[in-house]
Every structure is written in structure tokens, then in C-alpha cells.
Amino acid sequence: MTTDSQQTLDRAEPESGELAIHAENILPIIKQWLYSDKEIFLRELISNSTDAITKRKHVSVTRSDVAADGPARVEVLVDAAAGTLTIRDNGIGMTGAEVKQYINQIAFSGAKEFLSQYQVQDEKAQIIGHFGLGFYSAFMVADKVEIHTKSAVDAAAPAVHWTCDGGMSFTMDASPRTEAGTDIVLTLSEDAKDYLNAGTLKTTITKYCNFLPVEIMLEGEVINEQQPLWTKSPTSLKDEDYLAFYRNHFPGHADPILWVHLNVDYPFRLQGILYFPRIEHELSAADGQIQLYCNQVYVSSTSQDLIPKFLTVLQGMIDCPDIPLNVSRSMLQNDPYVRKISNHIAKKVGDRLKAMYNTEREAYEAAWEAIHVFVKFGIMDDDRFADVAKDIVIFKSTNGGYATLDDYLTRNKDKHENVVYYCSDPERQASYLNLFAKQGLEALYLNGQIDSYFISYLERKHHEVKLRSIDAEVNEALLDPDAKAKLVDSENNTTDDRLKELFERHLKGEGDDERPGLEIQIEALRTADVSGLIIEKEEMRRMKEMAAAWKNSGMAFPEMQTFIVNSANPIVQHLVTLADQPGNDEQVKLLTEHLYDLAKVAHKGLEGSEMVTFLERSHKVLSLMMPKT
């Protein structure tokens, strides 16, 4: 800018001119493309006003002739009759020369020049934005934009009035303003008159500017909180402080289980609080919301690039002044820096959980059922998180309490080395759980939706360990070798041979009744209460569960099951005697089929025609108890 033009401007003589821009249609582009939501204009203008107040405060420290004027305050004024909205601040203001420099030359970085000149060192009071493209967001909602400004630095310079109607020209003349600071006056367009409504203004301002470090006044009321909880030292806060903050900003939710307070200065600046909500159902993990702030200015609630996928279930706020945003400050750019922040957040969450596991084990176990989903997801999805969290994964045990994988393997080494038995459906597998309990065997509960994937992950990471469902095989500890029947008939067939022949003959079937995937196995269990069990090989069961998880119920799987007949059961033993007596073949067939169905009921239940047949056969079996007439 030339000396002559500066002298002319500082005399506040009327002036008009063309905006110094590099694209002919910059304002229509700003209106239609640059900002994703019109309401962002309030964020930009109030942020600029906050910057102006911050600048005045910094200058007043080094210059005695510049004083901070009263409390740091931004006022939002409505004149419904005139259709105007005014953003007023008592900040540093501008001279006429500065208006030309910072307003007429669009996108000139005023904040960068200011920081360079005054060498602001306080990172906690960084400039939020600057006059530039953010100021021009006003034209999204206004037919005319006016500035009334007076400099706090150059008290002798007259106040300046700048006007632009959204075209390519502006006018500048004298302003009646007498106090240092700036008024931005918007004559709202017809489709933006809703911003004359106090309720709309309050909702929008508190959304974007709730935590700005200055008072924001609307209709004589301070409407923002100013100091977010994350800017305070964790050592100065109590649990109730964190809970009150959560209840205020996430109303309608149950109190969180725990939280992580982020406070990082190096290698980047990062603050925030992440809350672990109470998840009633695994599918509700999608309800999380993490709000992204930049220097306490709200940016977005969609921060997938910054938050690891497995933590999107969380709720809270993070403030990162150094994140690379696009010009509208509404989305993250693709930048390696973002990935570093994401990795750090994952590590901090892992560290918090590990500390809780080590020092608050009872509270950790109480919270586990609610947090296990994203811990397991995080371990499978993020190697860095896995390094921290792999040793704090716990499993509910059938023996009561919780155990890590190592705990379980160590105490069951003598019974079944490197094999982990688990229960995936406590209700359906109740009879198997009962067998395990009677014989003092331990299983782990892996009955969440995510566990079918986590089981495979554990086997990949622990090559020597095999995980087996409690209904996938018969543990040796369930068998009683001394109880096996040793009776031998005239053809040297043992009782076990006879039982196998009987069940295969009556259950294998022929034609439409054939069961080609059914295997019969005779074993003597340590308990005589159970007549039989059905087991299904681990690999087949996992394939079925995976197909169900992917909603691919149309996939056809052959029935590959083994019916374990308990030769220690009195009813089973009686079948041999019954079969040796003439005329009992139909009765033997009835009982073998009924025992098989009882095992199926315990395994997965009966549906449709199977249940009808079972009920009809149950009546026939009961009729055998009736006295013969």
C-alpha cells in the first residue's frame, strides 16, 4: 500500500474501489461452495472478534498507550425492524490502512503477521483465526456487510466505515464509532432472516463458540461457558466435575463408565476428554460422538480421520490447534500429522485402561462387560493399541470372576494343555456347562457378537493355543473309563458294540430318513444323569457362525454332527436288555430316536416339524409307563 493512499485513508475521506482478489467470482464461490453450512458465518465472525480481543490484550502488555478495555466481550445485537445482525467487540480494531490490507485483500494472513510482529509466546492464547476468508463468510447470509472499526493501537486514527453489498466493489468513509473495537453489521438476506431469532442465534453460537475464552453476550446475557473442562489440570478435578460436564453436554445418557483426560504439549498440542459410555447393546456402539475443536472453536462431530475406528463409540471433545483443516475449517485434510495424533489418542486410551487394570482391578472388572467390545476391536484393528492392551483382556470364567488367557492356561495346564474351552451361548449350552461344573472343568465366556472374530484373532496370535467350544468335543476329564460296560455277548460283542449297532440302525435311517452326516460314538461319562450329547466340530460351527454374522443365511452347510451316547446312563443300558427281548424292536426304535432328540434339544433346540414329531413321540414314550390292560 502506498504512503499517499494510507494518508488519504487515515483522514477518513470517502473512498471506493474494487476488491483485490484473484478470481472474478470469489464471493459467489464463497456463498455456494466454500462453507458447507450457512450457520458457520457466526463461528467465523465471533472467532475473528475473539482474535481481535486477544490481540489487544497482547499489545497492552508491551505498550503502555494501549489498554485492555473492560472485560473481554463479544456482543451479538439484533435489530429486527432494520433486519440487521451486529457482531461487536472491544478488540484491537483497525485503521483505514489496515482495513484495506486485511479486508480488501482477501485471504491475507493478518494473524500470521501479527504473531510475527509481537512474538506471542503463550500457546494457550493462540490466535484462533484471522480476518480473511472467514470474514467473507458473512456474505452467505447478508445482502450488505458493513464494518465500523477504530484502532486501539493508533488512537489518533479516525474510525472507519466499510461497506460492501456482495459485489466486487466497496466504499469506505468515516464512522461515528468513538471506542476502539469493531462492529460487523449484516443486513440479512431474505432467506437468512431466521438469524434474527434469539433462539436460533443462541443455539448456533453455543454450538460453535461455547468454549471461546471471552464472554459472548446475547440480549444482555452471557451465553457461553468460556473455559472447557479439558483446559484445566486433571489434578485439580474430581470425578463429579467430569460427570457434571458429561451430563451437561451429553444429556439423556447414563453416566459414563470411565474417562480419559488428554493433555499433550509435545510432539503436538492436544487436549480433550473422552468418555466411555455405557453400552446397552453391542450395536449401539454407533451412537458415539466425539466433537472436534480447534483452539476451543467447534469444528465438527465427524472426526473419523482423527479418531481411531475402534474409539468412535466414545463420547467427548478433543481440541487440537495444529490439525490441518481445509479453508472452511469443516473437515480434516489427508495428512500424516493426523495419523500421528490418531495413534497417540489410541495409546493414551490404552495407557488409561492399563493403569485402571493394574491399580483399580475391581472397578476394571465391573466395567469390562461394557467396554470389552471396543477393547477387542481395537486390539484387532490397531497394532499400537494391541501392544498396550493385549495383556489386560479378561474373560468371565465359569468358575466365577475373571481371568486373562494366561491365567486360564496356567491353571488348566494339567487338564488340557494349550486348549481353551469357551462358552458362546450360555442358554443353549446349559447342559454342557452343567457337565463342566460337575467335573470341576473351567470354561471362558466368549458370547459377544465380536467374539467369533476375536477367537480367530487369538489363535492367530497364539499359534500353540487352540480354542474349542464346550460342545465341540468331549473332554477327557468328562469320561469315566472305569464305568464302561464290559459285558460280552455270545458273539463277543461288548455292550458298547451293541449300543453302537442299535443307535446306528435306528438313527442312520434310509431313503428320505437317512442322516448321512450323523456319527454315533459310545462313551461312558462320569455322570449318569445325561443320556447323550451332540457335538459339532469347531471348524464347521465357526463357518456357520461366520455366515450368520455376514447375513449369509442362504449358504448350505451339511449336517456334520456326532451323537455321544452315554453308556453310563441307566436308560441307555436298559436298551440292550430291551433289544434282547423279542418283539421290542419298535419300542427300542422309539427310545433311541427320543434320546437323540433330547440331545438335540440340549444342543440347539427343535423347530417346526422336528418339534411336532418330538412332542408326538414324547406322548408315546409316556404311554409306555401306563399299565397294560
How would you portray this structure in words?
- The protein is of the alpha+beta class and 629 residues long.
- It folds into four domains: 3-222, 2-Layer Sandwich (Heat Shock Protein 90); 229-389, 2-Layer Sandwich (Ribosomal Protein S5, domain 2); 394-477, Rossmann fold; 491-535 and 543-623, Four Helix Bundle (Hemerythrin (Met), subunit A).
- Helices cover 37% and strands 18% of the residues.
- It is built from 18 helices and 22 strands.
- Strands 1-6-5-4-7-3-2-8-9 form a nine-stranded mixed sheet, with helices on one face.
- β15 and β16 (402-403) form a beta hairpin.
- α8 (336-359) runs antiparallel to α9, α9 runs antiparallel to α10 (383-389) and α17 crosses α18 (609-623).
Task: Write out key terms for the chains shown.
Rossmann fold; alpha+beta; Heat Shock Protein 90; 5-stranded mixed sheet; 629 residues; 4 domains; 22 strands; 9-stranded mixed sheet; Ribosomal Protein S5, domain 2; 18% strand
What would the CATH topology of the largest domain be? Heat Shock Protein 90
Distance between the termini: 121 Å
Determine the mean pLDDT: 83
Domain count: 4
Q: Using the coordinates above, name the CATH class of the largest domain.
A: Alpha Beta
Using the alpha-carbon principal axes, give the shape: elongated
Total DSSP helices: 18
Rg, Cα atoms, Å: 38 Å
Which superfamily, in CATH terms, is the homologous superfamily of the largest domain? Histidine kinase-like ATPase, C-terminal domain
Largest sheet: number of strands, sense, barrel closure: 9 strands, mixed
Helical residues, percent: 25-40%
| CATH-level-2 architecture of the largest domain | 2-Layer Sandwich
Order of strands in the sheet with most strands: 1-6-5-4-7-3-2-8-9
Number of strands: 22
Strand content: 15-25%
Low-confidence stretches: 1-10, 107-111, 123-132
| Structural class assignment | alpha+beta
